[in-house]
Design brief:
The structure holds two protein chains of two kinds.
Chain A lengths: L2 H33 L7 H29 L4 H30 L6 H42 L3 H5 L1 H26 L6 H11 L1 H18 L2
Helix pairs in contact in A: 2-3, 3-4, 4-6, 4-8, 6-7
Chain B lengths: L5 H11 L1 H11 L3 H18 L9 H22 L12 H7 L9 H15 L3 H11 L4 H8 L3 H28 L15
Helix pairs in contact in B: 2-3, 2-4, 3-4, 8-9
Classes of the chains: A mainly alpha, B mainly alpha.
């Protein structure tokens, strides 16, 4: 059996693929007539939409935190948690903006390897950002509570809950991180997880990042092979 | 119909090369709904990229680049989201082949088995090797394949010779299995090779 022999089989496979396309096209047309313009489940479009949503949320929250920081600039107990939140928001918003910019500017008529590399880089960046967000969430919860209670309710969390409680919250946050990673690694082994939970668990455990970096390495190897 | 409007030009070119969309979509998705989504995504991306198309260059090569890029991204996204396209569904090529068997000369049991063997072989390759094989079977030159994929011609030759070795190994495995009279593990047909 040789590769060239498969070319004759390809002729037949090609004919079937064409027949499928004609049939799919006819069904698509019928469905469009029935339901109006059909919504595409295109993953690429969804990815760009999610990024745009994240960017919009990031900008709004950054504005909110920036305003809070400006109005409490001379009160370190409020300015410090706001600055920490602001930094995290800034990093997340810039990451979303860069990824969205790359996605929107991608020229899909460029060579396959170069486009796939850009996409793999975007995926790795996004996965890394998601993992950091999940890891830092228990630590960011405390400054968020301080800022929100002050901004919305006018309450001083230090006075209301006590400085000791605030520090304990931070300590628990630090402790929760390694425990969360261990729990996520254990859960990631179970095949029964629903796709949404699997994505969450794999992001936290670092499996998604390893996969994204693996895809980048694979592309590099593919290109470098001689 | 005027052919001056970009949309008309695009539609005319797409109609001339419409087989490419079907081939690429069929190669990366086997479920009808996924295939329809992918084909729609490819057409949409072709239209979005059309303003950048240089009419001095072959449309088919440009179209292959766009279609393969969209298809590979589509497949990788699905895989990253924990969704894998099943190799065979209720409306796959095998089903279609079974329904229209006998309508086409040369598609007898042996020809059919070869087609299924090719289909399985393609499904067993990575997304990039699948693209390489598609272009090879479409009689593109090594240079054209290198241009579409963005690798060197030497790299194309090396990869094709590796794929040939893999193909021989798989074919031999099936022949040996058939000779022993063992059923196919995947429940598929046997390949009645005369080689």
């Amino acid at each position: 059996m040789e590769l060239d022999e498969l070319k004759s089989a390809w002729g037949e496979l090609e004919r079937r693929l064409s027949a499928l396309e004609v049939r799919d096209g006819a069904r698509e047309e019928a469905r469009r007539r029935e339901q109006g313009v059909r919504r595409s489940r295109g993953a690429l479009r969804q990815h760009a939409l999610v990024l745009a949503f994240e960017l919009a949320c990031g900008v709004l929250l950054s504005l909110f935190v920036g305003r809070f920081l400006a109005s409490h600039f001379h009160e370190p107990k409020f300015a410090l948690p706001a600055a920490v939140l602001g930094m995290a928001l800034l990093v997340s918003t810039v990451t979303s903006a860069v990824c969205l910019w790359i996605l929107l500017r991608l020229d899909y008529s460029a060579p396959v390897l170069s486009i796939q590399r850009r996409l793999a880089e975007v995926r790795a960046t996004r996965t890394r950002a998601a993992q950091w967000t999940l890891l830092l969430a228990p630590l960011l919860w405390t400054p968020l509570a301080i800022v929100l209670s002050k901004a919305w309710l006018g309450l001083d969390a230090y006075a209301g809950l006590g400085a000791g409680y605030v520090l304990l919250n931070l300590a628990v946050g630090i402790l929760v991180i390694p425990l969360g990673i261990q729990a996520a690694r254990a859960c990631a082994r179970y095949p029964w997880l629903a796709p949404r939970w699997r994505r969450f668990v794999e992001s936290l455990a670092g499996t998604s990042l390893a996969r994204a970096i693996g895809a980048l390495d694979e592309l590099e190897r593919y290109e470098a092979e001689r | 119909m005027s052919t001056d409007r970009p949309q008309d030009r695009f539609e005319a070119l797409l109609e001339q090369h419409r087989g490419i969309v079907g081939k690429v979509a069929g190669l990366y998705c086997h479920h009808a709904e996924d295939r329809r989504d992918l084909a729609q995504e490819i057409r949409a991306q072709l239209w979005r990229s059309f303003p950048r198309y240089d009419s001095a260059r072959p449309f088919a090569t440009w179209m292959y680049r766009v279609a393969l890029n969209v298809a590979i991204s589509f497949a990788r996204n699905a895989s990253a989201r924990g969704r894998h396209f099943p190799a065979r569904g209720g409306e796959d090529l095998e089903g279609l082949a079974e329904r229209d068997d006998g309508e086409h000369e040369g598609a007898g049991p042996q020809g059919l088995d070869r087609v299924l063997f090719l289909q399985r072989f393609l499904e067993g390759q990575g997304e990039l090797d699948r693209a390489l094989l598609l272009l090879y079977m479409e009689e593109h030159s090594y240079r054209a394949i290198a241009e579409v994929l963005g690798i060197s011609e030497t790299n194309v030759a090396t990869k094709l010779s590796r794929l040939k070795l893999r193909l021989r190994r798989d074919a031999l495995h099936i022949e040996q299995r058939d000779a022993r009279g063992e059923p196919a593990k995947d429940g598929g047909r046997r390949w009645n090779s005369t080689n």
